[in-house]
Amino acid sequence: xxxxxxxxxxxxxxxxxxxxxxxxxxxxxxxxxxxxxxxxxxxxxxxxxxxxxxxxxxxxxxxxxxxxxxxxxxxxxxxxxxxxxxxxxxxxxxxxxxxxxxxxxxxxxxxxxxxxxxxxxxxxxxxxxxxxxxxxxxxxxxxxxxxxxxxxxxxxxxxxxxxxxxxxxxxxxxxxxxxxxxxxxxxxxxxxxxxxxxxxxxxxxxxxxxxxxxxxxxxxxxxxxxxxxxxxxxxxxxxxxxxxxxxxxxxxxxxxxxxxxxxxxxxxxxxxxxxxxxxxxxxxxxxxxxxxxxxxxxxxxxxxxxxxxxxxxxxxxxxxxxxxxxxxxxxxxxxxxxxxxxxxxxxxxxxxxxxxxxxxxxxxxxxxxxxxxxxxxxxxxxxxxxxxxxxxxxxxxxxxxxxxxxxxxxxxxxxxxxxxxxxxxxxxxxxxxxxxxxxxxxxxxxxxxxxxxxxxxxxxxxxxxxxxxxxxxxxxxxxxxxxxxxxxxxxxxxxxxxxxxxxxxxxxxxxxxxxxxxxxxxxx
Length: 524
Description:
524 residues, alpha/beta, Rossmann fold, 3 domains, eight-stranded mixed beta sheet, two-stranded antiparallel ribbon, 45% helix, 15% strand, globular
């Protein structure tokens, strides 16, 4: 079973017929009948075995070819560097044979690990974090096995290449997946394919909610093409949120077949029983169509959900968010180590920006702002000064021009900002001194936006959950829209991060932050 996060709901996807490929969403499924029952109805129908077609097959093939090329290039680079460092590594033809065999074995193990870790499962295409996680897990497993084999066989020449191939391969494979994901998202934005076609099942309000969540986002994977309601009374030409109502529960198989649906999504409804869902699964099995059940778990990340079997049902166990313990100790170590390295790397930039600020406007180089940190503790946050002296006293006079929602003050053309300050803000260079806050333990590299005391005073209860973790230099709010986000959406993203943090999520946000900062998107 695979769990997919969609807006405020978690569709739980069950493969109705394992091992059978889904046809392109633009074509209909074909089935062959084995034998009729006593009433002349098909006793059972099996999807015609056929190769996976459409965008999914092409995307899968490109991923496989890319991975083969990346693995080959990575291993060639690793062993090539070994020859440069140790020119006498290949002393005899036998050495060449051993090296070639070792390289081929590592490549085979690596590619097999990717396949067995579901790195080519169509259900994860374009998913970002879950897709990258499978690549990283597969790489870790492959190299763990190879290291064990090298130790058992006493093959010492593998150590050097492995030290190079392991990190290089992880970066290259994830980078390739990222590039293909961007290509897929561009296709979806253009309306040029890459979508999973759904038939929604549920009462009209629930189906309408599912449609509004899925059909309103250009980059969303899913699109609802039709609706079936639990009971009869379907009016000719009836639509729910712009999507046609095509029948009731008795019509699901026929309608899914006619639409060429990839999956059927069943919304929660008191009119749909467990027996109805079971029969739907049997019906969809005939066409090789997947069955998905939606569970209204708003902003709960998939890793926090565990399915537990119980008599006659399945229970969804949602892990309680934890804001301390070993996991957050790992985060603190990561923060300090990465901040120290980044500070050294950007020290010339820090010096250049400091000189530019001092030379172009009167006042100190740094601006100290008291912010609210974890558990409501105040701390002095350091930034490069981007405004003229006395700017804080002008906030009330500019209140009418405030473009920020909630207690947040924002202006696209703030007259208090200096000319150098506009450049610094566009590329977030004014925030680089916050690295010192990270090193001091006040902040994290990734976390909720650090709020001002008067903003916290206006917080509602759910907003205060942002204060359960350290504020960050960047966060989901930064990579999602930066200053373009509404106040409500920024709060939702911060709370989601606080409750669903993982080390991998931090690394992904840091990588996406670099891209957002370079582009200057959404900053002012």
